[in-house]
Write the structure tokens for this entry.
Amino acid sequence: MTTSTLLLLVLSLLIAGVLSYFQYLYKAKNKSKLSLFLAFFRFTSIFCLFLLLLNPIITRDNLVITKSPLAVVVDNSSSIAFLKNEKKTKAILQNIQSNTALNDKFDVQVFQFSEDFSPLSSIDFKGSQTNIDLVANNLKSIFKNTVFPTVLLTDGNQTSGNDYVYSFEPSNRVFPLVVGDTVTYLDFKINQLNVNKYAFHKNKFPVEVFLQYSGSKTMDADFSLSQGKTILNKQSMRFSPSKRTQSLTLFLPADKIGLQLYKATITSKVKEKNTFNNVKNFAVDVIDQKTNIAIVSAINHPDLGALKRAIESNVQRKVTIVKPNDIKDLTPYSVLILYQPNSDFKSVFDANTKLKINSFIITGNSTDFNFLNNQQTSLNFKMSGQKEDYLPVFNNQFNLFAAENIGFENLPPIQNPFGTITTNAGVTVLLSSRIRAIDTQMPLLVFAESQSGRNAFLMGENSWKWRLQSHVTNKSFEKYDVFLDKIIQFLASNNSKKSLVVEHERFYNSGEPIEITAQFFNKNYEFDEKARLSISLKNKGNKQTKNYDLVKGNNTYKVNLDGLKAGSYDFVVQELNSKTSYTGSFEILDFDIEKQFVNSDVEKLSQLATHTSGKVFFANQEEQLIKTLLDSQEYKAIQKSNSVKTPLIDWIWLLIIIAISLATEWFVRKYNGLL
């Protein structure tokens, strides 16, 4: 409380005392106890009113004891149940949670993880994936700038995510408690199988297989690769303690168009504890054509390589980079990417006037905009010689195809000359531009449709930075590459718009997310937010049918079909108001990645413990783990003093005192005839 406030309080006391004395004692003819009684209540009322007007701040110091957090994280994936460790895991968790000494020393917080991470609710050991890297990232966010220990109850067998050993902060100790069998059993395993999702008709596609052996003797095994009842390849292999892994590369003919299912199998004459990891099913979609794309550029630029790599991430695309004066024939190409066109592109534009190949025009600081204005009518450029950086702004109302916002608001700017860009009829904007915090309302990425075909325009160079930033954010190029592939897919087709557009994969691995997305457009080809979409799903094997509603998202409708059993499925997506429908099919391959393990991964968990200066414990050592945590002098409770400042105006009792004082004074005066 400040000095001025104290002086005002003293002044308030004097004023309240003087007014009370003047009213009931100075002017009173007969001074009695009643006068003193009324003067007291008048003094109380006036002083409390002054307190409300002054509203002094009352400061109280509270002592708070803060315990170090203890993160107890339990593996809720199905591999725990498969290895028959669910009861033991629950018992260990219960002992740790209920230990009084641990709760006295630590703020014990319990979490669970599988393919996702969350506070502990109920454990069912039905998670389809194990992502320990996710645990590290979430704990960093929850306990930021805090030193704390982590108890990790898991078998250590990770099936998704980055290598978890170096994901945890070295300053925060991790104590893995290994659940599961650590005894080495004889086991043959298909450790990994690499194959492209697509292959081209009448070509051969490679299949790379990595085989693994656990055991103490020299053993023979047979590997076979089959399609249906036909064995395509079979060979015998010998493993030993000194030769535990072998790899094979096979080339299979793509002589049938469509989805082809295959099975890889490794067998031996000795009975194994786990035979789930002896078989791996896979599929290849054989297609009969490839989209050829030409990137035409008169200059060298990092954008060219980034465009080529992003587009060719889809094996159905083939990209050729060529200079405008070197390209003689445009007929082999389905799409032309014209990078920063200038007068050297005259022959390309002239040849394309007759062929009408859809093009993707990218401008930049080397573009001749006067030349470009003469070659197309979709956009009109009035540009200066000054360079400017433009940030992208995503248009949620874009409806030509299902475009996802891949985080454009976080991407770096691209560069283009400063000026005015005017769009003409038939142009749809996907990205508009922003200069720092100013929205220019000018287009950055647009699409134009007319009777002569489709064209796209990107106004700016250095889009290679977008691909790089997308990888930094998502740890993968996939989101950016899929976005660019949708642009190429749009340009590669001149088909008229469909009112119902559905996107799905031809096959999924069991346990993977299964998501089908759809868009529905009204008669004006505007995205219809009031559409009612449903999907009817039929299992070809048992003929069972299930119906689901598609949920509206951001400019799209989605349905999540996770949990379906392996098999072939037909489906029909229908818009219930217009009865418009789309028919498709997909295959779910029988592969449970959580059943591929025989033992716990003690080696990897030991590396994690060493990296964080922790220690590995086993399922029968929980008491030793608890003792280690209790004996540690690194984690001590901290006593903090918190100052709580409360304005007096928030004190409800002050208002009650004023009301009681005024009411009592009035009733006493009324009773004694002083009113």
In short: The radius of gyration is 37 Å. The mean pLDDT is 87.
